[in-house]
Amino acid sequence: MAGQTTRYHGSCHCKKVRFTADIDLSAGTTKCNCTWCWKQRRWGVMIEPAGFEALAGAEHLVGGERGGFCRHCGVNTYAFVDTSAWGPAFGGDRVAINIASLDDLPIDDLLAAPVRYLDGLHDDWWTPPAETRHL
With 64 labelled, which of 1, 8, 71, 79 sits at a CA distance of 20 to 30 A? Predict the structure, then answer.
């Protein structure tokens, strides 16, 4: 059902970083073709900070409390992002969640989630790239 959030639990590979996130997957996810996202094979979702709780391990993140990747296992879990420069539809702090770090996400829910493709490789973020099959 659109507009309904589910609480997911997430972590890095070594479980030193753990969090919960209230996510409405029906609101959409993103995949980008920029070199950073491509090399990580990143599939993400943005949520309001009120729907996020760091449970453990901020001290293990490169980037600290604002998020980043675990200095032990290298997994990128979440990051706080200021989206105000992206336009009024975004405006303000959001938490970018790496979907692959969600431990209890049913595969059927993931496959049903809409995906918006971003052409970060050509700095044309609001236009989908011509080719998306590899993302």
Answer: 8
Average pLDDT over residues 16-37: 93
**Which candidate, 129, 107, 108, 109, places its Cα nearest to that of 118?**
129
3-state secondary structure of 7: strand
Task: Please tell me the CATH code under which domain 6-119 is placed.
Answer: 2.170.150.70
Q: Which H, E and C letters describe 95-129, residue by residue?
A: EEEEHHHECCCCHHHHHHCCEEEEEHHHCECCCCC
Tell me the domain boundaries of the chain.
Answer: 6-119
3-state DSSP call for residue 84? helix
pTM greater than 0.85 (yes/no): yes
